[in-house]
Amino acid sequence: MERRTNIRWWLLVAVSLGVMLAFSAPYLAFDPDASRVDVSSSAWHYPLLVAHILTALVALATGFAQFSERLRSRKPAAHRYAGRAYVASVFVSGILAFALAAFIADFAKAVSFLTLSALWLFTSWQGYRYARRRRFADHRRWMIRSFGLTLVAVSGRVLMPVLLLLYYALNGFSLPGGREGMVEEALNVNIWAGLVANFILVEWSVLRPAGRSKELS
Ligand code: HEM
């Protein structure tokens, strides 16, 4: 990896882990009253949400570890174990996310999470299958796609200020539903925005034939 790519990579690692640890922290106390998501409706909702977050954190950490060239070349067994932990955590977290979507009142928001879960499970499954068949170039492409989707959790949140600004501008620089209404509207579309942004970045920047993919390997 050249120096500039290296800096960008570590910035991505720091921002992703920093943002997601900050958002996950209230749930690590296992206190439903500290939940940012409204969970007053069901006894199932909170445990499912916490289990989703804990397994998603494992996916995020092991996913980053998989891109370490040093780990892959010096400790291939560790790469394989971390890879299995990544796929297993995506599967558990992704299936839990399907269940969580059932608790979401807004239709557009629920569909965004259902779409993200389905793509997350599909791309990870493809990556796993190709590793089992020892088709490592395909394995690598699908795992990059899978991890690009893991990072939608980050980009969806990082894009929030842009969406809030857009909402404000599109409403003629006023807040018809107040601040709460603005945040709610932005949260209904942030996953869609993150999905589109990450899809473009992964397919046109990382995976395009003459792109940076070589530098990441
Ligand atoms: C990429 C696939 C993912 C899907 C489909 C997904 C799905 C969901 C769903 C449906 C919720 C409930 C949202 C609500 O009721 O408003 C949620 C919440 C949450 N998820 Fe995920 N998630 C994904 C990845 C991740 C990752 C990688 C993390 C990293 C730790 C994560 C952390 C969280 C947190 C912290 C919440 C609580 C909401 C908040 O307080 O902001 N998720 N997720």
TrEMBL record:
InterPro entries xrefs: DUF2306_membrane (IPR018750)
Annotated transmembrane regions: 7-29, 44-65, 85-104, 110-128, 149-169, 189-207
Keywords: Membrane, Transmembrane, Transmembrane helix
Pfam families: DUF2306
Name the record gives this protein: DUF2306 domain-containing protein
Source organism of this protein record: Cohnella xylanilytica
